[in-house]
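Section 3.1: Structural characterization of target chains.
Under the original work plan, the team committed to producing a structural model for every single-chain target entering the pipeline before any wet-lab resources were allocated. The record below documents one such target. The sequence was received from the expression subgroup and is listed exactly as submitted; it comprises 277 residues.
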Amino acid sequence: MAELAHHAFEGDAYQPQGQTYFDDGREIELLHFIFGHPHLEQMRGNPDKVLEAIDEYGVTEKYLMNIGKYKSKTVVDLILKEKPAVMVELGGYVGYSAIAFGAAFRKAGGKQYFSLEMNPEFGAVISMLVELAGLSNTVKVVVGESSHSLMRLHQEGTLSHIDLLFLDHYKPAYTPDLKLCEELGLVGPGSVYAADNVIKPGNPPYLEYVRSSVASKWSVIAKSKEDKPRGRPDLVYQSKLVEGWEPSGVPDALEITKCVGVDSACASRSYRSELVT
């Protein structure tokens, strides 16, 4: 994949993160801040103005664990380049990414954007801000545990393929959720993944998985006694780190991964048998 450039951090940073930085009422405070904002009418149907208001809250009031405008630029550029028909984000929080990416997704001709969020209160915040931004016809908010939601959407026939997957939820769930998508056939050659927070706080298991060769993945499965999901180790990935910054100005990075093919010849018949039993 071609290099995706980022710019140096500049402008106003969010408030410091602190020890308590989410689910303490600030998400509802954000709604009151936005819907009481003197420029509310200018936000209606304008994704950029809604994002500006969210950033304003983060700068002047309290820290928000959003991807922020610096790292989101990398994903927006990726969306415009790849032109996905279906995009799924795991972890929506207050809707910053759904609005930023949903607007780019719509511009690129995308058909359906799914924002999966476990916390029902956060899901309600996402829905309200997505509607304010005029993206309700593009972004569908799904509340529930990510793995359960992926399986349900697949079983219902609502979700059969993911062109672009954005991972920004519970960090230990990145790898098992990706493996689940592999097993369900939701991802495959051509699919692209963007994983946030791979430096802060970091996600070594995920990086190891998407950077491993097919042979290495089969070797791990042969030695492992872990429960499923085990994924599809025959999928070939090209992966790279794209540096950026948290909205608070702290360095972080995204891992951008593309599935470029299938290497079935690498696995022995016994390994394949173990994968499905």
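The radius of gyration is 19 Å.
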